[in-house]
Design a protein that fits this description.
about 400 residues, 14 strands, 4-stranded parallel beta sheet, Rossmann fold
């Protein structure tokens, strides 16, 4: 399965070989963006196609191999197809010839386990229309939306789009605000952004850009400085910042420079709340104090990148954790959405990056095996705040907001 590098909603197209999955994508897009062939099994690996869907916006369609693929190689293709279930927000199951059996039943069962909504599309109605009794059974047994369709003869894409709009979770295509509940119009928000060898030349990293945009969207003012300028800058700044957001790598230094009466958090913790498993991060982070000799820590990066000598996930966090715990710890790093090298139960802790280039669904599903197995999970920023002794201060702005909402 290709690595996740897109925050747009992901829609998976599933079905048996030669059921017209690629033809359906072309019909939906109104142009040939997927290879079509009469030969069964033309699509061998999940392939991503980007397009715009009215009422949803930009999406990524994932064209998968047939769920009935056979042989050793076919089995591997099916395994990759099923891996796609972990990253999608909506599934479209394509059947033809009124054929619905164990392949489809097993797929629907897995969709249920992953809490993925789906619709069933009976394709090639120009050759054989959908039998009313099959439609009634599918609607009754599965509570599914079932549509009769032809990708080649007068395709009714309007009905498909309406079904997709009704089924896809709104959270898949609308991002909650990063800090809209923390700031108000006219507030000053100070951003501490270190410029080191890990910073991309000539630009800011994505979480910093997203935060600046969110501040401006809420009619507040963003002020940016490097970590060496924080103390003097705060003393000269009027009015005082309502919130200060720092890069996780300089958390400790920022904590020493920022007065206690000014709320302080990090870009990574903002992202953790917006698109991570924040509730389980809050539960899991304190477990860092219980690490033992020989514990294995899994570090999950959401993207691949050039690794520098000061890499945050591969160098700095392991170093900080070893110094904090005083224990002999082992670390394994997995980038993108690659398979884990071992069973999740062999890890004592999982540390997820901010996830700025993948969807919340992908992060939640990525962490689900650990959560289900009772393995503590945390996030880069929250772990760094913990080992530097300022964790409680860093999460306080969000806990205070949550408490105010309940009051």
């Amino acid at each position: 399965m290709a690595k996740g590098k897109d925050t747009k909603p992901h829609i998976g197209i599933f079905g048996r070989r030669n059921n017209g999955k690629s033809s359906f994508i072309n019909a939906l897009a109104g142009q040939e963006i997927a290879i079509v062939s009469d030969v069964a099994g033309t699509t061998t690996d999940p392939v991503r196609k980007s397009m715009e869907i009215r009422g949803i916006g930009p999406v990524v369609l994932i064209d998968t191999a047939g769920i009935d693929d056979a042989g050793d190689l076919g089995g591997k293709r099916v395994a990759k197809t099923r891996e796609a279930l972990k990253i999608i927000d909506l599934a479209i199951l394509i059947i033809t010839g009124n054929e619905f059996g164990s392949y489809e039943e097993e797929l629907i069962e897995e969709l249920g386990e992953q809490a993925v909504p789906y619709l069933i599309l009976h394709n090639k109605r120009d050759l054989q229309p959908l039998a009313p009794e099959l439609q009634a059974r599918l609607e009754s047994v599965y509570g599914a939306v079932v549509l009769d369709f032809s990708a080649l003869v007068s395709p009714d894409t309007e009905a498909v789009v309406k079904a997709m709009q009704s089924l896809i979770p709104e959270s898949a295509y609308t991002n909650p605000s990063l800090l809209g509940d923390l700031v108000k119009k006219g507030d000053v928000v100070l951003l501490i952004t270190p410029i080191d060898i890990a910073a991309p030349e000539g630009r800011l990293i994505l979480p910093q850009v997203q935060t600046i945009r969110d501040i401006l969207d809420h009619d507040a003012m963003a002020v940016v400085c490097k970590e060496d300028e924080v103390g003097d800058f705060i003393r000269r700044l009027e009015p005082k910042p309502s919130l200060i957001i720092t890069d996780s790598q300089v958390f400790k230094k920022a904590g020493e420079s920022v007065p206690e009466d000014i709320p302080l958090t990090s870009f990574s913790i903002l992202l953790a709340r917006q698109r991570g498993d924040f509730k389980n991060y809050l539960k899991g982070t304190p477990k860092l104090a219980e690490l033992k000799d020989g514990d294995r820590i899994l570090i999950l990066e959401s993207c691949t990148h050039h690794v520098s000598c000061d890499d945050i996930g591969r160098v700095k966090i392991p170093g900080w954790l070893k110094n904090f715990s005083g224990k002999n710890l082992e670390f394994e790093v997995v980038a993108g959405l690659s398979k884990l090298p071992r069973d999740i139960r062999e890890y004592a802790m999982v540390i997820q990056c901010g996830g700025c280039v993948i969807t919340r669904k992908q992060i939640i599903n990525r962490l689900k095996p650990a959560v289900d197995a009772g393995i503590p999970v945390t996030n880069y920023g929250m772990a760094i705040a913990w080992v530097h002794g300022i964790y409680h201060r860093a999460v306080e702005p969000f806990l205070a907001t949550a408490a105010a909402d309940k009051a």
